[in-house]
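A quick aside before the break. I want you to see a complete sequence-to-structure record at least once, exactly as it would be stored in a machine-readable document. Don't worry about memorizing anything.
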Amino acid sequence: GRVDGVWTVEPWVSRLLRDADGRILIEDREVVTTVLVASSRFREANPELTEKVVQAHRELTDWINAHPEEAQRRVVDELSELTRTRIAADLIAEAWTRMVVTNTINIANLEAFVRNAQEAGFLRRVPPLSELVPSSEAAPRP
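That is the input. The structure line, written in tokens, reads:
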């Protein structure tokens, strides 16, 4: 019934800190946790739809950054509905302080994330990341 360690994302980090007397052992504010992905076959067969989804993602990201309070309220509502448990607004506000919402992918950070996931046994095979990230979406390598 005990957990020694968890590799997770917000708001579950904040919830573990608050509700389970957890503590952060390793915090990487540059880690990539969510990436919009499509297969090359899908992209080639549906270029217009692919571009519409990418554009919608960009617009949503920009909206979230421009309206953080409303975005947090919506996250509370959605997570509460999904989990069937009321998620506290202040928990989401706390989680928000550790999140970066962006449309840019830092390849070095993505490579580190993939390497860590492989070492933890979550990924077996990974194609070259440069083939997965359009150059227009990638941030320059530091």
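Two observations worth writing down. Helices lie at 12-19, 40-45, 47-66, 68-83, 89-96, 107-119, 129-132. The chain is about 55% helix and 5% strand. We'll return to this after the break.
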